[in-house]
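Question (not urgent): is this output format expected?
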Amino acid sequence: YTRARKDEKKGSIFMYDTIIIGNGPAGISTALYTTRANLKTLIIGKDTGALKNAHEIENYYGFEHPISGKQLIENGIQQAKRLGATIMQDEVVGLGYFDHFEVTTKNGVFYSNSLVIATGTSRNTPGINGLKELEGRGVSYCAVCDAFFYRGKDVAVLGNGDYALHEAMELLSTAH
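Got this back:
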């Protein structure tokens, strides 16, 4: 069991059993297990990532009807809070380790016995006018996730290299 401690030089510094960096599906899912294992858990997230832009998600287990990415994120955060996780909106700016992990954010320093990094990935989006308004409404970034919605339709893959080729190959069996 760990408890908060006071460091006079740095102000209040809190000790956790685990700190999770990232408040998307991977970070929140991890927190569900750590809190249920009675570990004092802190989740630090800067933002909710690209998932918040998903208009309708139909391939997530347990939902009879489509759910928006924004609602899915909110449901997960509320579940983690209900189980006892502490969730903080902040940006991690430094990591260290000496007998315990030290996580420095823009607003404080936190210590833990374990650290999980679940920051997801960022995508590069082309600077095309109107693209942002069409995300989740015809513009997709995941062929495996969304090919179902484009069955029998003409589609185009924007990009080059291995990733674009992989996405195009995924669409071959469903779209034109």
